């Protein structure tokens, strides 16, 4: 995930990362790939729908609690025009999370967009 974070920052996005993972090497490669793809889609959605705003990414978890991913950004003052196919990214993410046995919740408030994902931490 480090590569994805660095790539996003190199594209000019102010990304603040908080990571607290206990023994991440015990996570199965399948969960790691799923988490990577979900975060990749979340950051793509951020660039499409909230360009110019900072994004906060939090990764926490362990083998007992599972993996929690939170992505939050303020809503832009001048909202981007909806891109063709808007909303399909969240649908695809929900399907991927469901296949992994996890949960996805997203919420748009008057000031921010928040995406929360939980995945079981299989070894």
Structural description of this entry:
- The protein starts with a helix and ends with a strand.
- The protein has 3 helices and 5 strands; from the N terminus they run H-E-H-E-E-H-E-E.
- It is α+β, with helices and mostly antiparallel strands and 123 residues long.
- The mean pLDDT is 92.
- The chain has a 5-stranded mixed β-sheet, covered by helices on one side.
Query: What does the largest sheet look like?
Result: 5 strands, mixed
Shape verdict: globular
DSSP helix count? 3
List the helices and strands in order: HEHEEHEE
- Care to count the β-strands? 5
Helical residue percent band: 25-40%
- Averaging pLDDT over every residue, what do you get? 92
Q: Flag low-confidence runs.
A: none
- Order the strands across the largest sheet as they lie in space: 1-2-3-5-4
Write the layout of secondary structure elements.
Layout (H helix, E strand, L loop, with lengths): L1 H9 L4 E7 L7 H21 L5 E8 L3 E9 L13 H12 L3 E6 L3 E8 L4
Parallel strand pairs: 1-2
Antiparallel strand pairs: 2-3, 3-5, 4-5
Identify the notable features of this structure and list them briefly:
globular, 123 residues, alpha+beta
Concise summary:
With 123 residues, this protein is an alpha+beta fold.
């Amino acid at each position: 995930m480090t590569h994805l974070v660095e790539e996003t920052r190199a594209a000019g996005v102010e990304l603040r990362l908080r990571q607290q993972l206990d023994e991440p090497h015990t996570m199965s490669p399948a969960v790691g790939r799923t988490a990577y793809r979900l975060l990749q889609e979340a950051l793509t959605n951020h660039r499409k729908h909230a360009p110019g705003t900072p994004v906060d990414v939090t990764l926490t978890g362990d083998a007992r609690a599972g993996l929690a991913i939170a992505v939050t950004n303020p809503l832009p003052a001048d909202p981007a025009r909806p891109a063709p196919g808007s909303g399909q990214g969240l649908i695809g993410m929900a399907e991927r999370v469901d296949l992994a046995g996890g949960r996805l919740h997203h919420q748009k408030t008057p000031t921010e967009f928040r995406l929360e994902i939980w995945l079981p931490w299989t070894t």
